[in-house]
Amino acid sequence: MAIEVIMPKLGETMEEGTVTLWLKKEGESIKKGEGLLEIMTEKATYEIEAPQDGVLLRILVGENEVRPIGHFLAVVGEKNEDISDLLSQARRIKISPAAKRLAEEEGVDLSRIKGSGPEGRIVRDDILKTVREKKEPPPKGKLVTLTGIKKLTAERMSESFKTVPHFSVSMDVEMRSVLDLVKKMAPEVERKFSAPLSLTAVLIKGASKALRDHPLLNSRFVEGKINLIEDINISVAVATEEGLVVPVIHKADGMSLGEISSTLKEFTDKARKGRLSLEDVSGGTFTVSNLGMFGVDSFIPIINPPQAAILAVGGMKDRPVVRGGKVAVTPVVSLTLVGDHRILDGVLVAAFLKKVKGLFENPTIFNP
What we know:
By secondary structure, the protein is of the alpha+beta class.
């Protein structure tokens, strides 16, 4: 018996998904549980399994096309099975009479329109918008449609910047002791965990420890109230070819440097292959973004909502410092903390950075 494959709901905030890859072709046999296609949501890429044994009878949505939750994607059934009834259901589109008349007059392809009305119903304004876009002369140059992670990042960052009152505080930190620590512990971490000990791992460990003393930075603003979060889950910005993804190291304050390094390696490998799961990218309470490897001196990032703060890490550079009336040259990193001013103030953020600075300049508490 033929069965439809629909766009699944893969997260609470998911409204639509992008079909990135069909793993089977029309007419190919498939077993229940075998990979059928890949879908990219705002957070990660997922492999969707075949719902039953049979043949992939029809693909209804092409690769790189976006469809809402519940939309027909394909039909799986027995070879040569009549699927005309299922296909007629797939073509049923919720649309107002006025919108339908206008679409017919203008020759608009309804299958490519996401309705803005109740339950995704296409209304007249949706058709008018599509017609305007068709008639406007295309601008010179290449147009790139935002989908998946890039689209969600653009939407979330825009919303964050519009609704959250951002402010930033910066502080320089001497890193000689941290570099000595990494050099000393790296061989043991590599031997025990088969992962390199990076500066990012130390930054995550230091930040998570400082958050224990400053719980307001590990909170979120919810309906006029501050929600203090018990677990310290550090989101780490990772760049991929598809855009920025932010996997989460859960309960980072209770992990050793080796455990953090191993988790970072796993996440980086999965992110670059587009294999992060929903669990991998959910539950973050504080973000660390390190652009030091690109030679950036300092930067001011946008808060990852609904978190209260994000720590930006600039590049390490040798700088002159004065000790006991004498000038010495030592590696220094600029840390910038961007906070939600509804929750935090300058004094609290400065105290947090001072705590982080103390941990990095005297890193005796870290263990491999």
